[in-house]
Write a structure and sequence with these properties.
With 297 residues, the chain is mostly helical. It contains 16 helices and no strands. The longest helix has 18 residues.
Length: 297
């Protein structure tokens, strides 16, 4: 573990003050969490969340219209709609869809797989819980069980016959999971499990927030290293585990509660890759930050 208990005691009040330093809910419009927050029914929330998380890569101004278009096509009750969906429905709805790595057949696997899970298990939450039980609480195993379970419910031969070959399915819904950080899947789990609060929706009541791993992207990896939460340089599962282990010293019950604020601190440009002295001088975290301390001399 990169963070010592003594260092954690010093960092906790700074990060808590950082969370209080602004209304982070103002950043929801810049984040894909806005999509599951549109719905009230927990089944619709979890469906919209998985669609949003799956496509949340690249620039937000490019992926958000794609997510919005799919969810609007599914109507106000996407869970009910997908539980009744057919391959023909997918072909009609997804005709012409392209977003970077993903083509209509990729999205058809995701959406028809979701529909199959809803019919078979009743909810996406139940599929994940089944994975936790089957893998004896192992988080990596449970998440692999989840992605495999969604893919297994999709009639892949019929999808390929009707919509063509998949192209970016491994990126959209990875299986096998491998050693990568699985950032978008962890993001999805954070949305579903934490809260409800000003950011996360918290509709999965049977999964403990204490087990969540932080979604590691370039912003979280960089800021976590500046704060001494990790010594690692890669965007990997092990990095996510190391950062989260440090955060558990700060809050064992809810280690990912700092994620949204830290990520958007980098995304917004307030904490850029190339430090801005004026920003560092005003930063609540400056005394704990490797760069902030240097610029403050």
């Amino acid at each position: 573990m990169a963070l010592s208990k003594q260092r954690a005691e010093q960092l906790r009040p700074l990060l808590d003050a950082f969370l209080r330093s602004r209304d982070w809910g103002e950043r929801i419009g810049f984040d894909p969490v806005e999509f599951p927050r549109r719905y009230k029914n927990p089944r619709d929330v979890e469906v919209a969340g998985l669609v949003a998380a799956g496509l949340a890569y690249g620039r937000a101004q490019l992926f958000k219209p794609k997510i919005d278009g799919i969810l609007r096509a599914l109507g106000p009750a996407p869970a009910k709609r997908l539980s009744q969906w057919s391959v023909d429905d997918a072909a009609e709805t997804l005709d012409g869809f392209v977003y970077r790595f993903n083509v209509p057949a990729d999205l058809a696997v995701l959406l028809l797989g979701i529909g199959g899970v809803l019919r078979t298990h009743g909810s996406l939450e139940q599929l994940f819980l089944n994975g936790l039980k089957a893998r004896d609480g192992n988080w990596h195993g449970a998440l692999a069980h989840f992605t495999q379970g969604v893919r297994a419910e999709a009639p892949l031969p019929r999808i390929r016959a009707r919509l063509g070959q998949t192209r970016g399915l491994a990126h959209l819904l990875p299986h096998p999971l491998g050693g990568g950080a699985a950032k978008r899947l962890h993001l999805y789990l954070r949305w579903m499990v934490r809260g409800p609060d000003a950011v996360d929706v918290g509709v999965w009541k049977s999964v403990p927030a204490s087990q969540l791993l932080i979604p590691v992207d370039t912003h979280i990896a960089r800021i976590s290293k500046l704060l001494g939460l990790t010594r690692r340089n890669d965007l990997s599962w092990r990095t996510a585990e190391e950062v989260t282990a440090g955060l558990r010293l700060l809050d064992a019950a809810d280690p990912t509660r700092y994620d949204f604020a830290l990520c958007h601190y980098g995304m917004s440009g307030v904490c850029p890759v190339v430090p801005v002295r004026a920003n560092c001088e005003q930063c609540v975290l400056r005394s704990a930050c490797r760069v902030g301390r240097r610029l403050g001399r």
